[in-house]
Structure formats: structure tokens, C-alpha cells
Amino acid sequence: MTVRRLGRWATIVLLVVGFVLLGSGGALADHWTVEVSAPEEGALGETIQLTATVHDAATGEPVESAELVFFSSVAFAGVGGDIELGEALTNDLGVAVFDYELRKLGTHTITIEGGDEPNILSFPVTIGGQLYQSPEGINLIPGAGGWVVTLVIGSIWVIMIIVGVAVIRVSRGSPPADNEAEAEEDQQERSTGTKWLNTATMVTAVMVIVAGGIVALLIRSPNTHHNRDPVGYDRSAVAFVEGAYAYPDFGLADDAAAEAEIGRGLFVTFGCAGCHGVDAEGTTTAKSPASASYDWVRQVIRNGQPGMPSYSEQELSDTQLNEIFAFLAEARGELGG
Amino acid sequence: MESVNDWQARLEDTTLDPARKTTRNYYAFLFFLLAVTGWGVYAYSLQVRRGLVVTGMSDRISWGLYITMFVFFIGISHAGTLISAILRVSHAGWRTPVTRMAEFITAVALITGAFFVIVDLGRPDRLINVLVFGRWQSPIVWDVLAVTTYLTASVVYLYLPMVPDLAFFRDRQAPWVSRPKHMLYRILAINWRGTSDQKRHLRRAISIMMILIIPIAVSVHTVVSWIFAMTLREAWNSTIFGFFFVAGAIFSGIATLIVVMAILRRVYHLEEYITPRHFLYLGYLMAAMGGVMIYANLSEYITAGFKFEEGTEFLFRQLFIDEFAPYFWFYFIGGLMTPVVFMFIRRLRTIGGIVTAAVFVDLGMWVERYFIVVTGLRAPLLPYEPVNYAPTWVEWSITAGGFAFFALLITLFVKAFPIMAVWEMTEERREEFEEMVEYEHEFDGEEILASGVPDSAPEPETGGPP
Amino acid sequence: MNRSSRSLSETIRAVGPLWLAVMSSALLAAAAGIRGLPGLLLITIGVGTAVAVFARLRNRQTSQTVVAHDATGGNLQVLLRMIDRRTAIRMFGMSALFIGPMGGVPRALELLAGQQVPEETQSPFSRIRQWAMIIDLRYCDGCQSVGSPPRCTAACVEGHLLPEPMQWIEVFEDELEGEGTRFIPIPCQHCQNPPCVNVCPVGATFSTPEGLVLIDQERCIGCRICMAACPYDRRFFNWGEPPVPPEAHLAKYNLEAQVPALKGTVMKCDFCPDMVRAGTLPYCIQACPNQAIYYGDLEEDIATNGRQLVSMAAFSAEHNAFILKEELGTQPRVFYIPGHGEAVGRVPSRTGRLPTVWPWTRTAPGGDVWSR
Hints:
- The structure holds 3 protein chains of 3 kinds.
- Chain A has helices at 2-27, 147-171, 180-194, 199-220, 255-269, 272-276, 294-303, 318-335, and strands at residues 32-37, 42-43, 47-56, 67-76, 79-89, 95-101, 106-113, 119-127.
- Chain A is α+β, with helices and mostly antiparallel strands.
- Chain A folds into 3 domains: 32-127, SOR catalytic domain (Immunoglobulin-like); 139-227; 255-335, Cytochrome Bc1 Complex, Chain D, domain 2 (Orthogonal Bundle).
- By secondary structure, chain B is an all-alpha fold.
- Chain B has 18 helices and no strands.
- Chain B has helices spanning 4-20, 24-50, 65-76, 78-89, 96-120, 129-133, 139-159, 163-172, 179-188, 196-229, 241-268, 276-307, 312-321, 325-344, 351-378, 393-416, 422-435, 447-452.
- By secondary structure, chain C is of the alpha+beta class.
- In chain C, 34% of the residues lie in helices and 11% in strands.
- Chain C has a 5-stranded mixed sheet.
- In chain C, helix 1 (8-31) packs parallel to helix 4.
- At the A-C interface, strand 4, strand 5, helix 2, helix 4 and helix 5 of A face helix 4, helix 5, helix 9, helix 10 and strand 8 of C.
């Protein structure tokens, strides 16, 4: 009898504790239901609103001031993962709105954390073009770039050519009729081919040539002020986000290679390359250390050898030593040893 | 009383003299200039071989003496514009005897200045790239265009009024004296016979050029200043720079003209034509420009100093107190105040005084160009210690070579070409006679008139304007 | 009509119709909604020609005058008298002939030469990457904890085989507002309003469609106006024969790597577009022991330091990123997150960094030595 009573009490206590725990548990954000929604699709560059509605799992009441964190799953430069976009708090209706700018074509995968388990939202972006545009710069003001210069210089040269024509006229001035001797000399001068091949025509010709050069310069000049029309970059490919040059392999080399790369630098910095060669290939002064064992390399660096200085731990840390060895190991592969 | 024709004959003789007689001193001077220019050329060849590492410039002070020389010489070139174009337009009769020299200084200074841009290049072998790949948005290309235009215009402007004088040289220098020289004059005189037709066309050409050359000259020095003002350097980021450089250019141009005038006057005995009046007028002009420069300086430094933006303290400290203080105060007191003060004091208002002031102005303006270039670059842009610039012997040699080259061209010019505008001076003389203008009485240089005022009606015109 | 008696006002009246033509064409263009100078010029030429033809027809009756000459050639009035209506018209016509075609010719030539931006850029699927960098100063301690000269600089020097005083990415020590210092690595800022590109006379330095500022050392004439123009002091000149290791001379010149360095030309950080193409991040980012430097793309709004991915916009906004000398309007592509190395345990009072070493300066054959 007492046992049964005890059992009944225990059940009641357990139920109460359970209810209490359940109630408080909801308040501790363990049992929320999060409904998320996003527009069907968006265009590139558009800012869409991601809405998340948070309800208490038990009571169904909206939860106020619940914190939701938004992540986006992406891959870039060979590194894949989630990037944190930001956080949003729910209002008194339990609704949190997050502004999300669409910067990527294709499927967007948004993870929202805050509920019992992450909610995943996925939607496509199919339309849109280049988002980033260079600023207008000097082209904003008509004429500021080159037109003013063209106009001023052009006008000046037109007038100069008029002057040149006037000078030609001077040289072809009519001979004085009253002085026969001079008229004769004048005639002689004309017959010796100075009529057209004289200084006046030369001056004018030079002026026309210089003016032509200036015009050519102005015409050929690329309008590249302010990164507006980046012409002239036909030497190498352009990196498009999608397309021929998407840089598919773009990313950081793995850690060993990175270590070796640092080691390569240290190999030069500490002067090893001076005797052993930049690629640790060995020279007439010293042979290649590439095939040496780790212990041997360590012992030689720390204690030195005839013809080679020693490096203490203060001069060359253990990390650096390891990096140098990583480089040597890499060099061993490259040298085929 | 002397007739106009006698006066003209005397003037022609005086003008022909330098071309006819060559003294031993002339050759000595020529040799000296050639030697200095040659030394400069040697220094430059060294720089071409080894690169700009032979200079004192570095990444942080990347322009130095060469750009200073470029700006200075382009400034000097404004002598011709001001004296011959502005004064011609404003019909100032007294300018005629000195126009030729002024115009020649213009052409020569431009050639010298343009050389220094090439000297400053790290890759002079690629100079052609400016034409092949030139971008018109670049201040350097503006410089190239403007200097080319100005050089062409000033050579034409030098040449046009010289055509009748060249014809006179052609006629007066017998072919057997020097055949190549005679040929030169014959070619350059473009069949000048002094007919009314030719005069009309020539006058027309001169009139167009004298107007045209003023905006060209102003634009040239404006764009020269813009190679500085178009950058984001604190010291150069100024809207007054264009005006400031043009004013400074005219200022130093007048000073150079005074100095050259004084030398040629002494050497070739041109006292009759280049009178104290010319020095006085040019001195007044120089003092006026000095006042403008003082004003421009105050305007620039007070607007900066009042606000005292970040970086201004460093600039002011190095300019007024520390490293560049001697240069600045020499420029301000020696270069700007001297001409003003000298023109106020009667006892200093002599040829000697004016020439002294002009020398000070030239030195001061050179120093100013120097410290504008170097102080602007010296202000650190990021947290690093400012570096210093000290020109090396190579730079000094090339600079000296530049000055020598400038003097050399002038020296050669006076040997070959008429140093005074005989034709214009004669025509004006005739006009004076005709119109009996008597404004000369106010001035000191009365001996010309005293000997020249006709007591009877003017001679019938022989080759004057129709 | 006796031309010598023509006064200044008459001359102005003669030139008047032309002025009227220019002004009315401007109004016409404004009314027709024509924007831009080429259109305006075209209209001006059209109206100007019409006025000129009209004026010429009228002028024919009076042009039989004898030129009576003024005594002096020497003032403005004489000039204006000389520029009679016919001359003025001729000058105007010639100017129009000369200047007019200039409007169309450059564009026409560009079209003929096919110098346009490639067609693909218009397609939505060919968006061009816009490279940028974020440097997180909270993680930069000037390599004090590593006990070496800044690794980014060293890696850059060794990767690009740089001559002695060049540090394309240079770690400066900057005074903090309060006490102590911070370290700030400064590479070329790759401005979008690049002062250096704007002033280059030969287009040797240029912006790429990807937003990088590169230099063609085979075109550079060494005028150094870009060095005067750069407000970040990030341009370096090869004053003499550059001291580089022998292997540099074996490389075929490539403007994206700027190897080998050429005497008398300007060099600077290029954001390693060749490395990126080869599939690795720039040297400085790979070498940074604290992963303080991010390389990213503004077009897709994403960046990485090799370990971690961030959204450029969110990351910059969250950590109050700044750009250098914002007030200059150069619009740099390098963003900084404020800090002084606190995330890697550096205290601001600990100052000083080890100087950068150029391993080959002494051994470089025929190299000159100069200082910064």
C-alpha cells in the first residue's frame, strides 16, 4: 500500500518536475520551431528579405528577442565552408527579418541557426549582370578629359597654319616693278627652285607635321582616366566569375607546401642558398642538403660544420628549422633524389 | 640734324657689328661655354649608362634639380611673350629695341627647358612612347603638347619680324665674306623685297601671332604647374598654382631679359638704343610682378596656415624654420622684396641697381622652383622618417651644362642674327617723326631725341608703309 | 565700304553672327536634349556652316574693297581690323573642319581596332572579378611573435625577386592615439580612382577590368610623375641596374609578375594576378603566420585568408573596417580592420620590428645599391 502510494507520489513529482523543466526549457531556447521563408527567386544585386518566424515548440506562442544567426554556404578560392552573414532578433510577433544581398549566381544555401536544429533555405538566382561598376570620374564632366585640350590646341594650330600661309605669301610677293635689277635678281631667285622649296614652305610644312603629330596623339590616346574604360589590358585574360577564367583551382596550397614555401624563403634569408644554391641543388662550394635526414640537418644547423656556421635557437627557431626541412623535403622530390 | 636715313644707317651698322667683328674674348667665352656644356654632356652620358642612380634622387624624393631646371627655364621663356607680345599689343613703343632679345630668350629657354625633361627620364630611349601611346589626360602630355606648340609659335614669332632684317643682312653681307652665311640669310629672308604686298602679309602674320602667343604662353606655364598641382601632395594641392607659376615665370623672364640686355648692351655698345629708360621700365614691371608674387605667396601660405590642416605643420616647419628656411627667406627677401625696394629708392633706381635686383630675382626664382619641388616631395605620406635630397656632382654638372647651353645659344645667335629689330625700329622712328609724339621728354634717355628731332618736315618715304 | 574706317564695333558685328551661331546651337542642343560635347559640336558645325555660307553670300558684295593699311603694325585694333569677316569665317570653317572630325575619329578608330571591352562582359554569366584585400590589424604584430622580419614582406621580396630597397608590402609602425604603436602592412592600394593611372603620360600604368592597377615596365618611360602622384608612397623606381638574383634574368618578362626588374622603370605591388591564375593566393597572404590578410572579390562579396571564408561586406561592417586616406577619394581596394595585434597577444607598448633583408643584394651581379 505504502509502496503504491509512494509510487503515485513519485509519478506526480516527476510529472511536475517534468512540466517545470519543459516550461523553463522552452524559455532557454531549446524548443523553438523556426519557419523560414524567402522569395522564390531574386535577381543579382537585389537585396531580399529572409524571414524567420520563431514559435515556442510547446505553447505555440511567438518568441520575442530570439537570436538567429544566418550563414551562407559557399566555396571560394578552393576554400569551402559557411560564412557568417549576420544576426537578427525577433520582434514581438516572433518574426526576424534579415536583409540579404544577392551577390552570387546559382543556388544560394542559407543556414539559419537558433532553433532546435539548423534550418536550411535554398533558392536560385538566375538573372543579373556585373554588379561592380567603376566610378565615372573625369568623364562625368563633358570636355574635362580631353575635349578642352583638343579644342584649345586645335584652334591654336589652325591659326598657326593661317600664319604659315601668310608667310608663304610673303615669300611670293610680287617683284618691285620700278627696279629692274632687283626684279631680275628676284626672277633668278625664283628660277632656282626657291619658289616652293623655301623657308616659308618649310616652316608651314613643319607646322603641319607637328600639328598632325599632335592630332594623331590625341586621336590615339586611350580614355583610361579613373578606371572607367580599362582598354589596353589585352595582354592577359580577365577573371570572370563564371566562364573561361573562373580560376577553378584558385586556393591556398596545402599546409606542407606553405611550410615549404616559408622554408624556401628562410633558406635564402639565412644565407644557406649562398652555398647550397637557391633550390638546394648544391654548388661547387657545398653539396645539396636535400637528401639529408631530419636529424642530420638539425645537428648540422645547430652545431655547424667546417665551412658552415652554426645557428643557435635564438638565431633560428625550431619552427624555422622545421620549415627549412620542409623545403628540403620538397626540394628532394623536385631534384629527384 | 640727323635724318632718319642716317639714323637708320647707323643703326644698321651697330646691328651688323656683332656679325662682322669677332673678338678674341668672344672666342674665349665661346670656348668656356662649350667646355661647360661638354662637361654636362659627359655627365649625362654617364647617367644614361648607369641610370638615375648617379643622382641624389630616391623613391621618396623622386624629382630634383632637373625638374627645377625645367620649370625655371620654361619660366624664363616668358620674357619674350611679355615684352614682345603684351607690350606690342598694348602698343608700348619703347619695347622695340629689346623685343628681339626677349624673343630669342624665349626660344632658347624653351629648348633648354625641354631638354631637362628628357634628362629627367629614366628611359630616354623610350621617349617616342609619348607620341605612340600618349594619353591626353596626363599632365606630362599636356606639357609635351603645350611646350611643342609654344616652341613652334615662339620660333615663328621670333622669325617673322626678323625676315626684313635677315633680308638686310643678306643684302649687306657680301657673299665672298662667308658663303654659307650668305646662303643662310638668303634662304631665311624668303625673297623679301619690302614690297607693299609682302609688308601687308607679314604684318598680318605678326599681328595674329602676337595675340596668339599670349594664351599659349599662359597655358604653357599653367600646365607646367599642373604636373605638381594634379597630384595629391599636400604642398602642391593648390588652386593658385597655375596663376602663381605664370606670375613667377613672367617675373623671372623680365629679370633674365634685364640681365641679358645689360650684358649685350655693354659688349656690343648698344647704349644709344637700349637706354636707361628701358631698364627703368622693365624694372618697374619687375617690381610690379614682385608685388604680385608677394601677394600670391601670402595668399597661398595664409590660407594654409590659418586652417593648419594635418601635414601643414610639417610643411611650414621645414619651409620657414628648419631645412629649407635659408632658401625660402632668400627667395622671399632677396628675390621678391629686392626689386620692389630697389625701385622705391631713387639712388638704387640705376642700371646697376636694376641689374643687381634682376640677378637676385633670377637666383630667388631658381631657389623657389627648387624648394617647391623638393619640399612637396619631402613631406612623408606614411609613418616614416622624411628623407633628404642632396644633388650629386652629376646633377650639378648637367645643371651647369644647361645654363652654359642657354648662354651658348644666345652667344651664337648674336653672332649670326640681327640682335635688334632694325626694320621695326626704323618704321617707328619714321612714325615718331611724322606724328611728332613728344612723350619722351618725361624721361632720362633724351639723347636720342636730342640728336634726332627733325627741324624740317620728314623726309619723303622711300620704303615705308603704303 | 572703306575697310580702314571700319571700327571695332563693326568688326564685332562681323564676328557676331558666328557667336550667335555657337550660342543658338547650344540652346538648340539643350532643347533637343542632346547631351555630351560631340553632339553639341556637330550641331555647332552645322549651324556655323549655314551662317558662314549666308554671311559669305552677303559679304561678296562688299569684298571688293582695297586694303588700305594702317601705319603701325602693333595693336589690337589693327589685328581686329585685319580679321575681317571673310577671314573670320575662314578661320571658323577651318577650325570646324579640324576639330569636328576629332569627335568621331577616336571612337571610330577604337571600333576599328576592336579595342572594346570584350563582348562577354555584357552577358550575365561573365561577371568580372573585382579583387580586393582585407588586412586584419588585430592579427598583425609585425611578426614580433615569430621573431623574424615581417613575413609578408619577406615572401613578397623573395617571390618577386625584388631589388634592395623595395618593399611592395611594407609593415609600417604607426603611433596609436593613446599609447604605443600598431603595425600596419601597406601594399599598393589598387585605387579605383588611381592618381597614378590618371597622370601616366603613356598609359604604362593602367587599371585592369578586375580593378587592379598594373604597370607595363616595357612601356614606362621613367618620368616618375606617378610616384609624385601616389598618396600612399607605394611606387618604387629602379634607379640603377637592379640588384636581383641571377635567376631573375632568366625569366621572360611578364608585367603581372614584374620579373625581371628593368632599369629606369617604376614597380609596385600587383596583387599577384599571375599567382591567382596559377591557383594560389598571393605570396604575402600565404606567408602571414597569423592569417591576417584576406584576398577577396568584391563582385561576389567574399574573401579568404586561406583558412576561413568571410563576406567582405559583413566582415568589414562588423569590425568597422577603414580605408587609408579616405578623404582623398582614391577609393582603395585594401580595407583595414582596426587593431594593434591584440588577437595574437601583442601589447601596444612593445615596439619595433626586425628590418627586411634582401638576400641577394651583395651577390647580385652588376647590381647598383640605392636607398629608399
